[in-house]
What does this fold into?
Amino acid sequence: MSSDDNDLIVNRAIDELRRLPPLDRDAVDRVARAAAAARVSPADGEALMERRRMRSMRIWSAVALASAAAVAGFVAGELRPSRMQTPQTAGTPVSGKSAMTLRPVANHPSEIVAIPQPFMFEHKSARRVAIVGDFNNWDPKANAMVRDASGLWSTILPIMPGRHLFGFIVDDSVFTLDPRKPKARDPDLGSEGSVLMVGRP
Amino acid sequence: MQRSAPPKTAVLDPTTISRAKLGDIDAFTAIVEAYHPRCMRFARAMLRNIDDAEDMVQEGFVRVYRALPRYEERQRFESWLFQILGNVCRTANTVHRREVSRRIEDDGALERVASHDEPSRAFDHEWGEAVRKALAEVPDYNREIFLLHYIEGFGYDEIERMTGVKQSALKMRVKRASDLLRSLLAKEANT
It folds into this structure.
């Protein structure tokens, strides 16, 4: 069999695979309904934010508890009598340093709160700028920014501790990253977002 | 191998995508109408379980709709759409493989597993069935690039941007897919 014959076979296969199925209008309607249902209403957005807040709280609670346990372990180690200590010193009252009481940090979900985060974006010719991110479900109508006389757009939003992706929507159409922040690729959608780290792990 | 360009998708009004980005569901429906047949063709060829094609296409479009505010118009819309649909199909194939593997472990139902890779019922003639059966033999990572290039008409530079895979590797994958298809279909073509 010649190479032309070989190409003929693959070309025939390609022609076969290129056959388009007919447009299924019922399927299109189902897709449109599913998309409309997936659209986030303000109420849905609140519920989503609440779920995200609770999930974030659980993670940060675990981190806080682990930190508290580590501190407690360290202090307990300090308090434990040394093997080299004599019986007399081991029995003496603890010093002022070791008598201090431990104060756990944020060991209850209710103690973990959103932290105000300033966002700034310079764009002199923009007529509107909104901030979008996973914290507002990428809703361009949720958080408009305010322009000052120099063309600097800004806003302050309460953001839960953790890692977030965000960007700016300029004039309702152009998605722009924050040039001052590192960027990361959204694993699901392929597009990039600016990375915001809130709080300390 | 030289191929003619695949047929173009119906041209959308340039403002349609902008309106869809603002949440206009009618504009989004126009986008779905324009791309649904191509997406179905791609999903049927990509998925190990073709019965999932319609669901996966729907899932892809819903993801597109939710992510539209982040769509950057300097990227071609259809390459962004197929990038998302490719992700959905790859995930579905991974889940399908796990399920198949579990079934084999659970009850050794090899016959049922084989039936999942049966040719599409949509292709009712022998050559069509042979092509689909041969395509199912091509590994997913080669098949996706073959489909994007030869069936959906994306250039290697664009596929490189979509997948992050270098052009030389993409060409090798397409060649391997073509070679396998050729060898599997040679006998069929001679009959």
In short: The helical segments of chain A are 3-17, 25-38, 42-79, 87-91. Confidence is low (pLDDT under 50) at residues 41-46, 81-99 of chain A. Residues 47-109 of chain A form one domain. Chain A has three domains: 3-38, 47-109, 114-198.
